[in-house]
Design a protein that fits this description.
With 496 residues, the chain is of the alpha/beta class. Helix content is 22%, strand content 17%.
Length: 496
């Protein structure tokens, strides 16, 4: 009996010790941040010491990618490990869209929760809520909690869409029963002021589309009525999300946790706190990036103060490439100066050109990852399989590949090829140094924004090593390579 108890105690000790050694996982996800916006990647016009710390104390990937050049599809892929074009609805969602991820679908938080993690999301969601007809005065479900998150503190849709409220575990935070909230994307309520009809009430003018209900002196997409006590103040949003992220860490530090900290910057409307307004000389966009960088610094400081850095893997990236004018006049274009948000690459948000999906991507794990740069091809879609391998979780059958060795700096090799996506589920293939964009009809620039789609009636082939700005179409010079890549692209996509 004594031998049995002794053996059982050893087993329990071993299990507890193993669990304690499981690293915490944090993904910090910026919104519309370009690879050229982070000073660790070589730009000198805007300092980002917080983001740089992750790059300089960990691995800075030179070939890190999102799956899509727009936000909803990239977020979908990060959490599900599936290419967004496999789900026709995985495009930029309107503010009243139902939950995009099926509650039966494998997800990153589900995998980690099964592996013993407490899971949380703080910040931007933009993957839909509810079933399509939401009563904001009751619990909004399904949402993040139903796809694997134990704790969720998110904005209801996006910063530029109604309702301009935070949702905590399905409930609008701060909503008073005496002042119910109503939302519509079809018609206004009781002739309430709008940006279109009442421009004199605006502190930031819209450039396109964002001309409906006004909140905090900014008109949005969509209409809302009531819920006054729950309405956010844009200038305070960064502080609100930071405090929630810090609180989650402090509350759950005794066991392994996963935090998806989804920053809202520098997505429009760019309204940084007064502490950062006017500090960069690059207008609100530059100031919003400085604010986001401060949030990263403060969050890392919290991990350090709680003695968690040595047992936490921190992954930083962005959902897509940069954009300047994306719906509001905020001097992003006029005050750009010598700053190049896309760095040395061609493209932007919405684009099939490389910078639409080629984003900052850094991984830090104090004491476990040696500082270096890596040219391994890695993508956010691979975090599901890679982290599952790291924590001993179940690896579902998805498009996600195991690139853990590359993420930890133990291999120079990542995935062999990658399908990237621009607008309307149109895709390209990235393999080795090549980027091939198949033939697509359609406008080269979207009608609502000054951005390149990358669409062209002619097939385009670029050597990204020699020509990162993609000025030279090499289809005529390398016809065999074109044929090879087109066949590989078709083999992966099939009829989708």
């Amino acid at each position: 009996m004594k031998q049995f108890l002794f053996t059982a105690a050893l087993c329990l000790f071993s299990i507890l010790g193993w669990a304690k050694q499981k690293p915490n996982v944090v993904i910090i996800y910026a919104d519309d941040l370009g690879i050229g916006d982070v000073s660790a990647y070589g730009q000198q016009t805007l300092k980002t010491p917080g983001m740089d710390r992750i790059a300089n104390e960990g691995i800075r990937f030179n070939c890190g990618y999102a799956t899509s050049a727009t936000c909803t599809p990239s977020r979908y892929s990060l959490l599900t490990g599936s290419y967004p074009w496999r789900n026709k609805k995985a495009q930029v969602l309107p503010g009243d869209a139902p939950l995009l991820i099926s509650t039966d679908q494998p997800t990153l938080p589900k995998m980690l929760r099964t592996a013993g993690y407490t899971t949380g999301i703080v910040g931007k969601w933009h993957l839909g809520l509810g079933t399509g007809k939401v009563d904001w005065n009751k619990r909004v479900s399904p949402g993040p909690n139903e796809v694997g998150f134990d704790y969720a503190y998110i904005m209801a849709a996006t910063n530029d869409r109604t309702p301009t409220v935070f949702v905590k575990n399905g409930y609008v935070d701060g909503l008073e029963e005496s002042d119910p909230l109503y939302v519509s994307y079809r018609k206004n309520f009781d002739n309430l002021p709008t940006g279109k009809n009442n421009p004199e009430m605006l502190k930031m003018n819209y450039s396109m589309g964002h001309n409906n209900s006004i909140q905090n002196g900014i008109s949005r997409i969509g209409y809302q009525k009531g819920g006054k006590a729950a309405m956010w103040i844009d200038e305070n949003m960064a502080d609100t999300f930071l405090v929630q992220a810090q609180r989650f860490v402090k509350t759950h530090k005794e066991k392994p946790f996963f935090l998806y900290y989804a920053l809202h910057q520098p997505h429009v409307p760019r309204v940084p706190h007064q502490r950062f307004a006017g500090k960069t000389g690059l207008g609100p966009r530059g100031d919003a990036i400085a604010e986001a960088d401060w949030c990263v610094r403060e969050f890392l400081k919290t991990l350090e103060e709680e003695n968690l850095l040595e047992n936490t893997i921190v992954i930083f990236s962005s959902d897509n490439g940069p954009i300047l004018d994306d719906g509001y006049y905020d001097d992003a274009v006029e005050k750009l100066g010598a700053h190049k948000p896309a760095g040395k690459y061609r493209g932007n948000k919405y684009s099939l050109f490389d910078a639409g999906t080629h984003v900052p991507f850094m991984v830090m794990w104090k004491g476990k990852i040696k500082p270096k740069q890596s040219d391994a091809l890695v993508c956010q879609i691979d975090l599901l399989s890679s982290l599952a391998k790291m924590v001993g979780g179940e690896i579902p059958k998805t498009d996600s590949e195991d690139v853990l060795a590359a993420l930890l700096g133990k291999s120079k090799k990542g995935r062999k090829q990658l399908i990237t996506e621009g607008l309307h589920h149109r895709t390209a293939i990235r393999k080795d140094k090549w980027l091939l964009i198949p033939s697509y009809k359609g406008p080269k620039k979207p009608s609502w924004v000054d951005a390149e789609t990358g669409f062209d009636i002619n097939v385009q082939l670029f050597d990204l090593e020699k020509d990162p700005m993609q000025k030279n179409n090499l289809t005529k010079k390398y016809p065999k390579k074109v044929d090879q890549l087109l066949k590989q692209h078709q083999a992966i996509k099939g009829d989708q």
